[in-house]
Amino acid sequence: MDWKTELITVAINLVLVLAGAAAGALGGYVASVHGQNRISEREKLKEKRANLLAVTLEVSKVLTWAEKYATYCASCSVEQFTSASQNPPTQVEANPMQTIQAIASLYFPEIVADARQLSIAGSQHYIAAHELLLARYGVDHGNRSQKDVEKEQKNVQGAFMNLCAKQAKFEKATQELMAKLLSEEESSNKKT
């Protein structure tokens, strides 16, 4: 074999080795990026699930919050009301609907409308309970009748029933969303 043939054979082998190394490096890079995307996708799903669990926890507090506020308004004394009118208690405890709406708007556009409806129902209940408080205060001061108080009590009950219905609807929406997230998470785990 002459030196030219030998040089061509070495050059061809060198090109093949370099091409193989480049293909291996490219394959390793693609696998690394693909693996990072899978991990990132799984982490995003876990974060969404955690946020949905936070929403679910807050939803479970809605009726308790509403009952406590209504009880406060139904049993508040004139002195408490007078002091409250100067520094009104906007909450017996933290209003969970604010947290629900915030998390839904940040992470779950598919349930924002239901969160808004739940919040509206909560506000209606809050107003009805406050109107009951005003009616009781009016009776104590002679400018409202006991019938006004009874009417406001019925309004509070009606608003509470509406709130219960909106909460049930929202819970159903969050359950459906959780099932979807778990399905996506399971399918993401199967891909890796």
Question: Could you give a quick summary of the protein structure above?
Answer:
This protein has 192 residues and is mostly helical.
Strand content: under 5%
> In terms of structural class, how would the helical and strand content be classed?
mainly alpha
Oligomer: single chain
How many distinct helices? 5
| Radius of gyration (Å) | 32 Å
Q: Give the fraction of residues assigned to helices.
A: over 70%
The major beta sheet can be summarized as: none
Total beta-strand segments: 0
Enumerate the spans where pLDDT stays under 50 for 5 or more consecutive residues.
none
- Distance, first to last CA: 51 Å
What is the 3D shape? rod-shaped
Describe the protein.
The chain is mostly helical and 192 residues long. 88% of the residues lie in helices and 0% in strands. It is built from five helices and no strands. The mean pLDDT is 79.
Attribute tags:
192 residues, mainly alpha, 88% helix, single chain, 5 helices
Helix-strand layout with pairing:
Layout: H1 3-75, H2 78-86, H3 96-107, H4 112-140, H5 146-191
Helix pairs in contact: 1-3, 1-4, 1-5, 3-4, 4-5
